[in-house]
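hey
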């Protein structure tokens, strides 16, 4: 079982630490954001190079490199949105009385450029790994993007926990696009599909005849999928999920006044979560 424990632990640790680091940087003074993005963009370039270089690497190291590179690319996507560099044409609250498609269109406008950047990032990774045997970077990125989108849609439709302390103050206008509800029709479908995906990836990791590269790669992406599924659960279950990243909010203890908004995805994605899906806290109920 040690062969599975190491990649699974690696996925958990890098997911937890990278999420906290992004939250920490997002909440630094606005004057520091250009410097953070400059460094982040250099890391993005290095991550894309590493993904391309590892596309033909079928060793265990190749699987780790692919996963880490994709996670860094996703981290750039989240930083660029939460720092306000790549967001959307709308930077205002939900129009008073907006319902249905009008509300959805206004919400989409708050992150339209961000959505385009996510698609471009996916296209870049697809191109870099095209024809190569190591596709774990693409798998990782698709899981992050897909689960992030699922979380955003669920938060838009309404979830029980809208934890907002991880949302930077300059994005407070997003509150009107979120709903506080005990359940929505999409949530059971999202969790069921995510659970099925987790089981399928886990079975691939446990399959007979796979080599060390595949064992590491499938274990990592299965763990990532399980974490994303767990984050979906945090949207509805009365669990203190915010405590996992409290260290990333300097000067804000447990009794600190929360920021009155949140965007869901990152980890990631209503707006995207810092990484996967669901970094937020309770906000007043709103029907947008």
């Amino acid at each position: 079982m040690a062969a599975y424990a190491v990649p699974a632990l690696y996925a958990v640790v890098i997911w937890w630490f990278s999420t906290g680091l992004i939250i920490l940087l997002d909440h630094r003074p606005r004057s520091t954001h250009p410097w953070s993005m400059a460094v982040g963009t250099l890391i993005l370039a290095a991550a894309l190079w590493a993904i391309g270089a590892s596309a033909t690497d079928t060793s265990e190291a190749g699987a780790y490199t692919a996963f880490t590179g994709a996670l860094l690319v996703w981290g750039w996507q989240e930083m660029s949105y939460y720092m306000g560099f790549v967001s959307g044409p709308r930077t205002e609250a939900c129009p008073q009385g907006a319902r249905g498609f009008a509300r959805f269109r206004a919400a989409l406008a708050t992150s339209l450029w961000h959505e385009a950047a996510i698609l471009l990032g996916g296209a870049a990774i697809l191109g870099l790994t095209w024809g190569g045997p190591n596709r774990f970077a693409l798998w990782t990125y698709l899981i992050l993007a897909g689960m992030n989108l699922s979380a955003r849609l669920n938060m838009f439709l309404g979830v029980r926990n809208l934890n907002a302390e991880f949302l930077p103050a300059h994005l407070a206008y997003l509150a009107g696009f979120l709903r506080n509800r005990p359940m929505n029709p999409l949530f059971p479908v999202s969790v069921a599909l995510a659970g099925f995906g987790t089981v399928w990836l886990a079975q691939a990791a446990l399959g007979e005849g796979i080599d060390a590269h595949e064992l590491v790669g499938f274990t990592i992406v299965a763990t990532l999928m399980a974490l994303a599924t767990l984050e979906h659960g945090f949207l509805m279950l009365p669990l203190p999920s915010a405590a996992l990243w409290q260290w990333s909010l300097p000067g804000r203890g447990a009794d600190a006044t929360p920021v009155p908004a949140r965007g869901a995805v990152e980890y990631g994605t209503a707006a995207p979560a810092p990484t996967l899906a669901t970094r937020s806290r309770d906000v007043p109920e709103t029907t947008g």
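Residues 2-248 form one domain. The helical segments are 2-26, 33-54, 60-82, 100-109, 112-129, 136-157, 186-206, 212-236.
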